[in-house]
Write a structure and sequence with these properties.
Elements: H1 18-35, H2 42-51, H3 73-87, H4 91-120, H5 133-140, H6 144-152, H7 155-173, H8 180-189, H9 200-235, H10 241-274
Helix pairs in contact: 2-3, 3-4, 4-10, 7-8, 7-9
């Protein structure tokens, strides 16, 4: 009898390599999965995060994309992609839990932004705001002493007076003197008898001296205000108790929910591995 040739779908007797080959493939696949982590740069993760979005049921509405509090959708997508890389969810149930984690971390970032906003919402130093027309009209109704006190007692008022004195100088420089209305305004708000200065050179010199005097006073008052604002900023270096309580309640609830989601996800993945 000749030697029998085994069928093509069977291994020759004594050469059972099916189990060995399958085991090697499994180990190779595991090594490849561990060494292949995908893109690591933010630029590379952005398109991957969009392509890897399996289920957007929870994550699609979390990012604010309009209005005054607009957020960065790409930043959230990168974070979600990194969480998926970390937990490697299988199936929609695990993926939804990973989305809940991403949403929770995103809300924690909002809580920090709220705290920062509470601290930075206080007035800061900067350019002196000019007087509004309503403020000027209100000062015009005051008596001379009160009007002078209102204008010469603040950097904003002094800035307005300096502007008026400079306008009076231009008026006197391009004519024989200043008008009766201008001299009356100067006498009322800065003091002195300006109508008596009929000599043009003496008038211009007096206006220059007054400008220097007012500017020096303005700088001094600005320094005083700056010190007061710095002290006020130090006193408000933490948010108010009302703001802190609101932020803490928000974040405490968020952190507790995140802990529960992590437990659910880890328990689900542990059961899957055991099965």
């Amino acid at each position: 009898m000749g030697t029998e040739i085994p069928p093509l779908n069977e291994e020759p007797h004594g050469t059972n390599t099916t189990g060995t080959t399958s085991q090697k493939k499994i180990e190779a696949n595991r090594e490849n999965a561990q060494s292949s982590t995908g893109p690591t740069s933010p630029e590379g993760k952005k398109p991957v995060s969009r392509n890897a979005r399996k289920h957007g049921l929870l994550a699609k509405d979390v990012v604010i994309t309009s209005g005054n509090h607009k957020e960065d959708q790409a930043e959230f997508d990168v974070m979600l992609a990194e969480l998926r890389d970390c937990y490697q969810p299988i199936g929609i149930a695990e993926d939804l839990l990973v989305q809940e984690l991403a949403i929770s971390y995103w809300r924690s970032a909002r809580a920090l932004r709220s705290e920062r906003g509470q601290l930075t919402s206080c007035p800061t130093t900067g350019e002196v705001r000019p007087l509004t027309e309503r403020e000027k009209s209100r000062i015009a109704l005051d008596d001379d002493d009160e009007a002078r006190y209102q204008l010469l007692g603040s950097p904003r008022g002094l800035q307005y007076v300096i502007q008026k004195v400079q306008e009076a100088r231009k008026e006197g420089e391009h004519s024989r003197g200043i008008s009766w209305e201008t001299s009356k305004w100067l006498s009322r708000h800065v003091g002195g008898s300006w109508a008596a200065l009929s000599n043009k050179r003496a008038l211009l010199t007096a206006l220059d001296e007054k400008t220097t005097e007012l500017t020096t006073r303005k700088v001094m008052l600005e320094e005083i205000e700056l010190r007061q604002k710095n002290v006020s900023a130090d006193c408000s270096s933490i948010p108010s108790m009302e703001a802190l309580n609101r932020i803490n309640r928000y974040e405490t609830t968020n952190v507790r929910h995140r802990a529960r989601v992590m437990q659910m996800l880890e328990r689900s993945q542990l059961q899957r591995r055991q099965n």
